[in-house]
Amino acid sequence: MLKLIQSFTRYRQILPMQRINCVQANSSFSTAQEPVNEQKILEKLRGRFPSASSIHVEDTSGGCGAMFNVAIETSEFKGLSIPKQHKIVYDALKEEISKIHGLHLQTRVSD
User: Fold this and answer.
1) In angstroms, rounded to a whole number, what is the distance separating the alpha carbons of residues 24 and 22?
2) N or C: which end of the chain has fewer CB within 10 A?
3) Which residue ranges run through the membrane (predicted)?
């Protein structure tokens, strides 16, 4: 778990995510849509990956819910290619992804 968080942190230092202006990001969204936040994504992922050893979600858009970094470590990914791992996560977050601008995803197989 520590390795995953260190890797996640190192990536953010090397390639900092561009922050999006909340007004600009939210202007294209319908007001009828409930905004996405870290807690919503975390709850959805915990429901989909109950045996995950680590799930980390960070809003990188200054709190407006437009861009997220997500890191998941679970044994459920064992034997799957990274694209297949990511597809499983994208499928789990299908509704949320339709409401956000971007998602940076890291997946790992736990020991």
Assistant:
1) 5
2) C
3) none
Per DSSP, the chain holds a count of helices (H) and strands (E) of 5, 3
Distance separating alpha carbons of residues 1 and 25, to the nearest angstrom: 32
- Looking at residue 99, its amino acid is K
Range of lowest pLDDT (7-11, 40-44, 68-72): 7-11
Select from 1, 8, 29 the least CA-distant residue to 106: 8
pTM: 0.71
**What is the domain-level CATH number for residue 82?**
3.30.300.90
- Supply the range of the domain harboring residue 100: 2-108
